[in-house]
Amino acid sequence: MKKILLIAAIFVLSAFSAYAQDSTGSDLTKVWGIDEFIENGKKYQDEDMLEIVVDFAPDGSYSYWEENDNLDGFWELSEDGNTIYFDKDTEDEMVWDIVSLTADRLEVKCNYGGKKYRYVFKPKISKGENTDSEPTQ
Fold first, then answer.
1. Is 35 exposed, middle or buried (0-12, 13-18, 19+ CB in 10 A)?
2. What pLDDT does 137 receive?
């Protein structure tokens, strides 16, 4: 019985440790492209989905592209690592609640204009980062 409790405790601590590492923002600082778009519980298909790209820079700046709109500003991660603030304490402030964050997946939820949104992002590879091909000369 003691072995089972010890194994369970180790599992819980390792899971907490993994979450604590992810919540520091180190996994957040990259370019993310939208993978799933859900509005008021309705999941949009790829052909109907808005193109959204967010670049979280390590210096606290961000670039946000949605279709033809482009926003630049500063982002901040809450102390507990569960909330991303865009342009905090300004009239342009946006708030995303982090549902999950790993090196290869970011899921957030937010409310705007009386609508509930859930976005799932995957890391976006820049056009110049194709690792499958030979370098061009």
1. middle
2. 42
For residue 73, what are the domain limits? Answer: 2-125
Q: Cα–Cα distance between 26 and 56 in angstroms, integer?
A: 10
How far CA 122 is from CA of 35, 103, 125, 136, in Å, comes to: 6, 9, 9, 27
Number of domains in the chain: 1
Instruction: Determine which helix (DSSP H) or strand (DSSP E) holds 55, and give its type and residue range.
Output: strand 52-56
Per-residue pLDDT, 83: 97
Q: Kindly report the pTM of this predicted structure.
A: 0.71
- Which ranges of the chain does DSSP label H, i.e. alpha helix? 2-22
> How would residue 110 be classed by pLDDT, with cut points 50, 70 and 90?
very high
Q: Which CATH number characterizes residue 46's domain? A: 2.40.128.280
When comparing pLDDT for 50 and 136, which is higher? 50
The half-sphere exposure of 26 on its side-chain side, counting CA atoms within 13 A, is: 6
Q: Cβ atoms within 10 A of the Cβ of 15, count?
A: 10
The pLDDT assigned to 6 comes to 35
